[in-house]
């Protein structure tokens, strides 16, 4: 393909990614290369470097330090190690930009983002990165500040990078889901916007991620991926519309409901009655969501809704994979005070992390290192059997104050009961 | 330059933007008041609010790394059919929000004409959640977009249909940090050799105590090499995880042949039925073979077929394997069980079978 201003880099390996039915990012990059725009030579060399990676099976980017005025993070610097071969894309930085909670957009705002990125960047935008950021990919060092200024004027702000509070995600939730048990977008914005300082001026031992899912289906993968997961649930009985249960039975048959709903209940809490209605043992139910997922017209979360807070999820580095541990088996999330308490607790956990974690240690690893009881004590949270699979099975522990602890917890429980009455 | 022009613009720390200004009016009106939903066809959801309002969602796959022309094309379609409102899923699918059912079919027709697959809902294989790879990462073992494009081409029919026993969530990661996350199937780089150290550069580039501290098996120690302060690796201890490479690029972990791909199965985020799970190793040592990674595609398709043919409705990959047992799983996908399948990490003993529960 001829281009007036530069020789088009041959990309025989990448060209093979233009066939096939799935949308091709290579075709997209070529559109930018051939657009005759300011950024076209940059994309030409980017394609050249990527082809070089495909030949050598190695990456050729290195990091560095690039920031905008007032911030210490949010830009991912990329300098080419093969800039002599591909000079036009020698600087190809990314701006991590926080999306609106729930990733809602109007075409108007998307078009404005495109215009800004054509003016200052490469014309390449990823919706979204694994942390949930809009990734404006490919900008020279010189254009980082004006690109950020333009996006900032549009009402958008940089996300997290490095040892800092990170960009957060919430599921679609309240905006379009019948299973949503709390206002996810509200919780996300209250917490992240309260602690923005920890995001924009990185000073934590390592990254800290919040994620918000409206129900135990956990559509934003919070238990695995978040240091602080807020997952919607309910405490009272689930709602059953028996007429609609009958409709499901009529449509799918008793055998199907028995095998795929009743028999798949993890705690055997369901019974399909002779009259095609469903009985639920709500005391045994663990709110796993399976039956609600299958029969979403008939079965609903109860009215006493809130969330479970799990802390410490992360992937392998360094001590091995960790999932979040239940720290608050239930918090109510209805009133402004409920949300304030959540924000306050989040702040206490961030403070604890900042003060006690070792460098490059995630909070799950800190808890593993010091033991869950020590973490609970530091947080002022009472131990609860919901936090563990089972009580201790190893006798090697010092228990000289065991009886005192029993008394203390008994007194506390009695005090709470009294206060409630 | 005037004083005003020289004064830098300070950021307006607006934080996370308010979503309501961009949200479809029907979603805004019925916020937190939805009743149920159904799927009229693959790629389409219809949500019904307690008020009786309905909203149709048409979900389409994208290449995630999008050029502005692709984004504007999607915007044109959203203006024409979706009142100018879209959103994205965590797996980079775009969702068009439609107030009017009669726009559903024409939108689908135009999306397909423009090369955007409509699907990814219900019991389908949705878009692979993935990372940056050679396109933009500083420590990648492989590409991300290319692997994903190759795999999605192979799994296209499974994206546009809903013929799987339950949803299938696939992830890829281009190093062992595993930014792609857990998946029913996870395709991750697995290094096979200890880092090759460029001793000339270590002292200048790396903060040596930080690198020593980063190693999960304490295999790195300071050393003087050719009179220069550097680091050395106890190769008998090294687990080839690549953790030292990020803080110290002269400890090159990647190699044209040494960087290999592993496939894992049974990761699951949802609490539905069974508790969330981490994925488990199926096969490692697959070649890192651009531009199409055929060997990886073959393994993934074999696993998908076995799951599709053998799992019961609503069983996720992990649920299915738990029912049939790992021996049967390995038999079905025709992969022998080898010593590397047995965990050796901390608490590995908790992964042993201490019972006579055996499926013959």
Distance between the termini of chain B: 83 Å
Count of individual helical segments of chain B: 11
| CATH class category label of the largest domain in chain A | Alpha Beta
| CATH class annotation of the largest domain in chain B | Alpha Beta
Name given to the CATH architecture of the largest domain in chain A: 2-Layer Sandwich
User: Rg of chain B, please?
Assistant: 24 Å
Q: Please report the total strand number of chain A as a whole number.
A: 16
CATH superfamily caption of the largest domain in chain B: Sulfite Reductase Hemoprotein, domain 1
Shape of chain A: globular
Mean pLDDT of chain A: 96
Oligomer: heterodimer
Question: What is the number of domains of chain B?
Answer: 3
Report, as a whole number of angstroms, the end-to-end distance of chain A.
80 Å
Outline the structure in words.
The complex is a heterodimer of chains A (421) and B (360). In chain A, strand 6 (124-127) and strand 7 (134-137) form a beta hairpin. Chain A has 421 residues and is an alpha+beta fold. Chain A has 15 helices and 16 strands. Chain A has helices at residues 12-15, 25-33, 40-56, 107-120, 141-153, 184-194, 196-200, 222-225, 242-252, 254-262, 290-294, 336-356, 363-370, 372-379, 402-420, and strands spanning 61-62, 75-76, 79-80, 94-97, 104-106, 124-127, 134-137, 169-170, 210-213, 228-234, 239-240, 270-272, 278-280, 299-300, 305-311, 325-332. The mean pLDDT of chain A is 96. The longest helix of chain A has 21 residues, at 336-356. With 360 residues, chain B is of the alpha+beta class. Chain B has three domains: 19-113, Alpha-Beta Plaits (2-Layer Sandwich), CATH 3.30.70.3340; 133-192 and 256-351, 2-Layer Sandwich (Sulfite Reductase Hemoprotein, domain 1), CATH 3.30.413.10; 196-251, Alpha-Beta Plaits (2-Layer Sandwich). The interface between A and B is large, with 126 and 117 residues. Strand 6 of chain A pairs antiparallel with strand 4 (65-67) of chain B.
